[in-house]
Amino acid sequence: MNTHSSLRSASDLEARGLISKSERIGIEEVARRFSVAVTPDMADLIGGPPQSDPIAAQFVPTRQELDWSPKELADPIGDEAFSPVRGIVHRYPDRVLLKPLHVCPVYCRFCFRREMVGPSGENLTKAELDAALAYIAGSKDIFEVIVTGGDPFALSSRRIRQIVAALTAIEHIGVIRFHTRVPVVAPDLITQTFVESLASPKAVFVALHTNHASELTSAAREACARLINAGIPMVSQTVLLRGVNDTPESLTALFRVLVSNRIKPYYLHHGDLAKGTSHFRTTIAKGQDLMRQLRGTLTGLAQPAYVLDIPGGHGKVPIGPGYVEEGVDGTYQVTDPYGDIHDYGG
Hints:
Largest sheet: 9 strands, mixed
CATH class of the largest domain: Alpha Beta
Shape: globular
Number of helices: 11
CATH architecture of the largest domain: Alpha-Beta Barrel
Oligomer: single chain
């Protein structure tokens, strides 16, 4: 798959029939503000407009993105305040983000880094990457490095191999984790050579971002299998999105197809307060209700943690429904997955 054939403008989207001629001017205005890219793999899955198609909703821009709420932020999870050197975000004591590039094969319309990623975003220079790696080497408390961006799997096999080798050489690093959309949106990029570039005697994990079961095409499943068969464990991250996956049926289908393909659902993210994304966000109460419904019907292997990144860089916390309330005399009241309340002696 050649990502150079991706749709990157309003005229590309119109030519492919994904927006109408009357929509083009408005979409051009959106594209001047936020980056646009839809890979051929994702374009092939689109069967309707963003208002009714879960794939189109994620990748085809709409004028709603120009409607900004005062509570929406350019940096909704506070990356910038925790960036001691370019390319590093160090929010938690034992792990850091390493962001070697700012480009992606696709640009999700709800992205919390939409102000930072895109064609105008620059990759780290060699000197900047060396400085970022030196920071990691000099911070002995760091156990895990999460390579993100942008999408690190948009890098060449050679660049990935260099990054993995550099991190492997740092004695106190125990885990190297890559966050990516590529196995879903451009699965042909996951070649055997690319998979081999991830090899390390240290633990290497891949976290796949996917939001709907239809994204897991046969090509995507094969790409994931190449990684997993090479001994690389995979987990998933999903964003709860209104009109995309905010039903128990949609989430159940997604999490089941992930588990059946040896990918552990890890996080279900509540939508961040990124500019122009209010039409995607559900309420927290809606998310909690969905998780409560999944608890009674979906295997524990397929249950992710429902989490919220607190605006301002205050960290990620679980926000799933509660099941226990303290009573009197050391007793508790426990709600089962079906809503019935039971006493527990404590």
